[in-house]
Amino acid sequence: MSRPAVDALPDLSGLLELAQDRRLDMKPVLLRVQTDLFRAAPVRDPGTIRAFEALACGLIPTVDAATAALVAERLAPLADTPESVLRLLAAHGGEARDAVLRLSPVLSTDLLDAAENGPALDAVIARRGDLSRALIEDLTLREDPAVDLALAGNRGARLDGPALARLVARARTRPDLAAALVARDDLPAVDLAPLYLDAPTGLRARIREGVAARAALRPLARPAPRGLGEALKTFALRGARERAEAELSAALGFAGVAWDFAAPRRHDLLALALRAAGLSEEEAVFLFLRLDPEIGRSVEAVFALANLFRTTLPATARDLLAAILGEEPAERVAGPEQHRPHHGPASPRLRPAAPALRPALPERVRRSQTRSE
After folding, report:
1. Would you say 210 and 190 are in contact if contact means Cβ atoms under 8 Å apart?
2. Shortest CA distance to 112 belongs to which of 337, 225, 121, 258?
3. β-strand partners of 332
4. Residues 337, 11: Cα–Cα separation, whole Å
5. Mind listing the pLDDT tens digit for each residue in 307-341?
6. 221 pairs with which residues across the strands?
7. pTM
């Protein structure tokens, strides 16, 4: 049984016969077929590349947008694709242009000019997988919602530092951008703290861990105002939720906060606020049950909040609340239980400076008596 030659050319006679029928436009089919053959070629010698270039450049201006987009998706990533072909695809506009700008290994000036380079292309370029740190920085400075969303959804773009901080700050008021950022698994969880309420359960835990590590480097929060717990319990019993929220805001040093504890995604705010305010666990559980009916009726919610309260340090809760609410945390002071270094400016064991000693008297010089016998 004879084995067919590997390099045997496909039989296109049927396609050529169809091309002679003037009622059919075979140019799109011919371009797609030739594109697939060019991609499948194990080796593309100069002659093959020139032949394909001549055919493709003649067909691309005549095909529809869908065909141009499909061809661009297949040809743009190939290093052997002639730039003249890519320029024509970019000039075609629409999805074909976007595919070239997103997938081409090199973006030359001529290629950008063919795509009518301008701010409208920034969102497309932001989806490339080879963005440099400088380009990402520049793109985030554009303050273009489409560019921000493209960068957030681009898993190949390394987001960190000021560029990530800008995107996170804007995502506080843009749910679509927040959803794209918290969906990524390559970003530092602590940098996503302002988006805590948009994060799923697993990411929330990692954010708290990151905030706790940073909060441990600073003094603990100042103690709660005396009588705060009793005042909040009284307001809760009276059904004066707004009064309780205002009292809590004042105690934490946050002005004009819309707590909205009843919303399921905002339940954690209540536990964090009570923990940051320095209340006891008994007081916190009472408020979980009585402050808001929506929370109090859910056993699952109460248990989850109690666990969050129990496992979060006050300093962590204060810093996390500040990040979520976009507020500055209240001034911190060291508590008596806080560790102080044995040797350092804050050490209570340092002795007062010793009085200056009297200057040493000059050493007496023995005079050697040389007596002549």
Report:
1. yes
2. 121
3. 221
4. 86
5. 999 999 999 999 999 999 987 755 544 444 444 44
6. 332
7. 0.75
